[in-house]
Amino acid sequence: MEPHDLTRDRGKTLRAPVILDLLAEELPDATIALEFADRWQLLVATILSAQSTDVKVNEVTRELFRELPDPEAMAEAPLERIEELIGSLGLFRQKAKNIRATAALLLEHHGGEVPDSMEELTALPGVARKTANVVLSNGFGRHEGVVVDTHVARVSRRLRLTRQADPRRIEQDLMRLFPRQRWLEVADLFIHHGRRTCDARRPRCEDCVIEPLCPSSQEAGLTDKR
Length: 226
Fold this sequence. Notes:
- The chain is mainly alpha-helical.
- The chain has two domains: 3-30 and 146-220, Helix-hairpin-Helix base-excision DNA repair enzymes (C-terminal) (Endonuclease Iii, domain 2, Orthogonal Bundle), CATH 1.10.1670.10; 39-139, Endonuclease III, domain 1 (Orthogonal Bundle), CATH 1.10.340.
- The chain contains twelve helices and no strands.
- Helix 2 packs antiparallel against helix 8 (129-139).
- The protein starts with 11 loop residues before the first helix and ends in a 6-residue tail after the last helix.
């Protein structure tokens, strides 16, 4: 197969592992950016990260976890106090209700421990599949899927690893392209690449290690990378 054929849709199976290897070499520090001390804190931080930056969430959770470090403390805290502690985040009122209710459910049904299954996690308030994937992969080392946030979706579509818009369908495409043991790596690398290089508005294609394998770049030319 000619090199330019690798940028076509039919070459994505061949491109996928090469892309991941190149990004892994370029971004050896690509890991989850949220700060947490245990699985409970990981779960809370991930719930809070919806429509908020990881940097802002980390600022908020440092104080939150000092005052309310575990499910017992969170479940007993007045809702108004939780809202005060996370008030600088988007959707803070709904998030406060969710993390307080989640704490209560963990105490009632799981002995205060974070469950380790997709079904049990997604039954908790404020926990959708993406959040559950983050907790399972980073908290338990269990790879049940690929985390698809805005960065992963954008990078995957620009690389023509998927043409889907729905996160669940994007996830399914990525799960088919990459081996299970690398699903966490896919998310971490694509998120960091999306933040550092493959920006939503002004992608820095001239500095991109995987630019030769990117159909979007090849189609647009170096003067207009969309």
